[in-house]
């Protein structure tokens, strides 16, 4: 396996790019450590596939370098990079048995049959498909076909990285959790460097030790699932991760204090380098409290959604939607309420970026 380093990476599909708008990737510096489980998360069109194709060697970047264990592989073709890739649709041979499908990458490299048998049976045991080894792949269910596709990526011992490009998109929802769990277990057992590309936050957060969040060709944050949830460094991360996502509310900053409408909102700590003027408050629905009266932000309940484990309340204040997650009793639609925000979880953002620090209230 290998450490993968992207240095000053930029890419444009235009022959003569003039500015950032012409770049699909805008200056990326990133290091994936050897043996780590990473997810590349972002909406469609954010640059995930472009970055994946550059790492695999299908694209040569307009600028910058790709290093595998400090070796420059920027211009090397895919065959020279020792990368295994699992795609959205299973890549297997329907006319072959499961055994022959798993053995194919090793036979293609001239490995001894005894070594092939040991590797294939070991991977089959991990994937729980040992009883299918003599079954033709055409007779498998879609989830088992994707298992075999994963196994073909994992059976080689010489790969630098295994990359998964939205591998569960075509899998039935009730089977996705099972395959995600199996993939996580496989990573813990084989200790391979894995990069999982997806637009699904659940897949990213349940698989990866660290998640790279992309927006418009840029990396806006890299961190553990807990870090992304508890302290998003950009409002896009707060909004994209969570269900519902973080409330992002316009505010005015006056002498270090934040005001939403006419109510002062206590922040987690001092604002850094924010002059008086427009900014944004970020607060997750889990940390919004609803009372029938008292000090806080006056609001009116618009609707209440019962999702089983808890209720999601949508309220309107100063023409802004604010979500709160409640357990137990919830107010009724149309009811006038007061909202309060947990101070330690109330963050200030300027131009989308986190601008407050934990500590004493400003």
From TrEMBL:
> Mind listing the GO molecular function terms for this protein?
ATP binding
Looking at the record's lineage, which domain of life comes first? Bacteria
Q: Which Gene3D superfamilies match?
A: 2.40.50.100, Nucleic acid-binding proteins, P-loop containing nucleotide triphosphate hydrolases
Q: Which SUPFAM superfamilies match?
A: MOP-like, P-loop containing nucleoside triphosphate hydrolases
Is the keyword ATP-binding in the record? yes
Q: Which PROSITE patterns match?
A: ABC_TRANSPORTER_2
Q: Which family is this protein grouped under? A: Belongs to the ABC transporter superfamily.
Could you tell me what this protein is called? Carbohydrate ABC transporter ATP-binding protein, CUT1 family
The organism is Roseibium denhamense
